[in-house]
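Deliverable D4.2, example record:
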Amino acid sequence: MNFIDYQDSRPIYEQIADRYKLLILKGVLAPDEQMPSVRKLAMELSTNPNTVQKAYMELERAGYIYTVKGRGNFVRADEGLLLMKKKELAQELRGIFRKAREIGIDIDELIEEAKDNDRD
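Output generated by the structure prediction step:
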């Protein structure tokens, strides 16, 4: 698992949390599947257990996982997570489209440019 990019300016805990969010949204991690223990993941990633714990706290706060005292962390079975992410991305796109219109860039042209770059 290559979770950490040392060239990335984001904190390591954010990188870990973002990777797990992606894995959960893609369905790679099934609902109610147990997450690796904090200690185990910290060893695998060669990072401090406090960093992993902070990532898990972020995932729990965002609704991606839940904690069972004495048993560990588990993937939350929530169909709304993907819908929530879709709405978040749509809002980001609206912001980008608004900025494009403000500087005179045609929205359809911008979409085509993005599609062309996605094929590379």
